[in-house]
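Forwarding these from the shared drive since the link keeps breaking.
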Amino acid sequence: MRILITNDDGISAEGLTILGAIAHEVAGPGGEVWTVAPAFEQSGVGHCISYTRPTMLSQLGERRFAAEGSPADCVLAGLHVVMQGAKPDLVLSGVNRGNNSAENALYSGTLGGAMEAALQGIPAMALSQYYGPANRGTANPFEAAAVHGAALVNKILAAQPQDQQDYRLFYNINFPPVPAADVKGTRVATQGYRRGSHFSAEEQLSPTGRRYLWIRGGNQQVETAAGSDAAVNLDGYISVTPMRADLTARDALDALKAIERTCA
């Protein structure tokens, strides 16, 4: 198997090293793992692409490249330049430092890389490691992902449905904020919503009087609906959420029929 890996924490991130080990195990002895990751941290960029400026691409080693762009840029570079059109069998993005459960998924560059792969027709998974009191101060906060990641990826590959829809499936995987031995199992979960917890902006003044804004995250320990991703993560389970890039609110289509009219 040929696998392309990327992330949003940058080419030097610890989570990318963990993902590389996962990818090599999944690819097998005769497989290939290619890395194209951002040269600098790109957390929170979502599905951004560098459409209005060029992106520098540097080779750092065998099958290892850094691009001065977003995770989606890195996937485009991998598919169309680095791998010279010989598409991979799978794209893995992560392992993100922190969760991409609930509304975090909408901001995530990790998910943005997987989404771009799906738009290109390639099976893709985004892997993220939830942080919390039980794992934040441990020697390896990524232990749950490192121990359980490869087996889970293989299980999803074996179980995924045949998918010929225009907007292809990709998978959002979040490992719980506990040591590997305390992981209770895996749950297929919906995307949750943390009520009352959201990103915000805080203003600060520099010593010279200039105004700066810092973006602040919300409380990641807020409970979400039962069976949703963050809820099962906080209960010690790995969450797997199948996603598509189609943003249509189908539940609202019928209610809006009243605004339709025919032009004479």
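-- next protein --
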Amino acid sequence: MRRAALALILSSACPAQAEDFLLWLPIDCTLGQDCYIQQYMDRDPGEGHSDYACGTLSYDGHKGTDFAVPTRAAMAAGINVLAAAGGRVRGYRDGMPDTGWTEETRDAVEGRECGNGVVLAHPGGWETQYCHLREGSVAVITGQTVRAGYVLGQVGQSGRAEFPHVHMSVRRNGVPVDPFDPDGTLTCEASSESTLWAEAPAYRPGGLVEVGLTDAIPDYDSVKAGLAGVDMLRPDAPALVVYGFSFGTRAGDVMRLTITGPEGEVISRDTRLERNHAQAFRAVGKRLRGRRVWPEGVYRGVAELIRGEAVVERREAEITVAVE
């Protein structure tokens, strides 16, 4: 089993010119469809936190960017982690299980919070680090030279990871750098044209990860695992339930959940979120009461995340009610 020490360097960010150093996405997916950015580098020097767009998608002291996949089922299917720039492998670690971070695993991951990962050295004093890779997936060795886009491993949940993702840190001469604002000139009042990205990812201020339909209120672990939704139900199913799984929600946001079927609307309900959530899910449903069966046909579940007067994101799913 291959192992090498990986140190997560913590330091205060300072301005750094991008020059000819450019980054490509470190994950083989389509942002906004089958993956998303859960958290950005913390730009608040105090005890609070703020992302580069002055939003809430970060936490105090976060030193990188988290590219997440929707569920553990998506992780299990295999999503590649890619070198964001060409360089030389300075170190790696593999062999840590994808148990994620809980109170039960805290002691086991202490000092190895990055989990399975890779550090690449690039010209000009630049480094990129890729954390939380899937156990057994690391595909490089120390000293190896790789090009941008080379497969380093796969997205996992090893180390201090509460959801499947790859955490990418960028450093220059050991100092963390925000790839969305490497020169450090960005403020809440003024945008910055500086970026390390060859094609800068669009900023999403939160959104929906998944929507699904089933016959009972699912437990949160099943939702995060990607095992809650179904494609078909029998007409005598005890209930019809729609759930929405979201990220980056803020206090006051509304989750609107709706089910429609062959005879029109089954249920529609708004739920107001009372605090900020890195991830959250809500569900509503209707029991089979006063009738023997649900009409056969296609049912559509819709989730909308609403902030103020604007719909941040809308997603839908379908289910067929029929006799098998």
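Residues 82 and 151 are 5 Å apart (CA to CA). The longest strand covers residues 310-321.

- D.
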